[in-house]
Design goal:
188 residues; alpha+beta; 16% strand; elongated
Length: 188
């Protein structure tokens, strides 16, 4: 040993019992933290929305709806089963819901239309590219559109016609029984 230097020997740390109890406490804290983090992580996974950057299929369907139904607002468009898309569009107070299902036996980029109700079917028949089925062709032969303004005008005409029919019935109401009686009269 050199003069003036401290003796070299084992460096003593905390007592082994203290070291063991500190590691046990740290291990238990980690376990508690993991058990608390697991439900928190599950809650975030369930309730946090899944971010979507964009779906080219939905964008294509929305563009088709805007081209076929100008002036209509697309409220929702979501992907559904087997490559189909559910669409809800509105014009004024009227909402129509239908599915656009590309393919399924049709040429590429052609799509079947499946309305949610009868009034939607009637509207979609006006813009279908096929006379007996509701189909949108990728390359339509004729330009079939249903603009929002056209739809509002049709609705107003139907309402006016319905009011006129109600007036005509009320005028004929008094003579309706005579009309029925004359229909059932025996003719020799």
């Amino acid at each position: 040993m050199a003069r003036g230097s401290a003796p070299v020997g084992p460096i003593r740390g905390p007592a082994p019992e203290l070291h063991r109890s500190a590691s046990i406490v740290i291990i238990r804290l980690r376990r508690v933290a993991a058990l608390l983090a697991l439900p928190l992580l599950f809650a975030v996974a369930v309730w946090a929305p899944i971010p979507r950057v964009g779906d080219p299929g939905i964008d294509r369907v929305v563009a088709q709806v805007h081209a076929r139904m100008p002036g209509w607002d697309v409220l929702r468009a979501t992907d559904t089963w087997e490559g189909g898309y559910a669409v809800v569009a509105s014009c004024g107070a009227r909402e129509v819901g239908f599915q656009v299902v590309p393919g399924h036996g049709l040429p590429p980029n052609d799509a079947w239309l499946q309305p949610n109700d009868w009034t939607t079917r009637i509207s979609l028949e006006q813009i279908s590219d096929y006379p007996t089925f509701l189909i949108w062709r990728a390359q339509p032969q004729t330009d079939r559109t249903l603009s929002c303004d056209q739809h509002i005008a049709q609705a107003a005409a139907v309402q006016t016609r319905t009011q006129a029919n109600a007036r005509n019935i009320s005028l004929l109401d008094g003579s309706y029984a005579d009309l029925e009686a004359s229909r059932h009269r025996r003719v020799d």
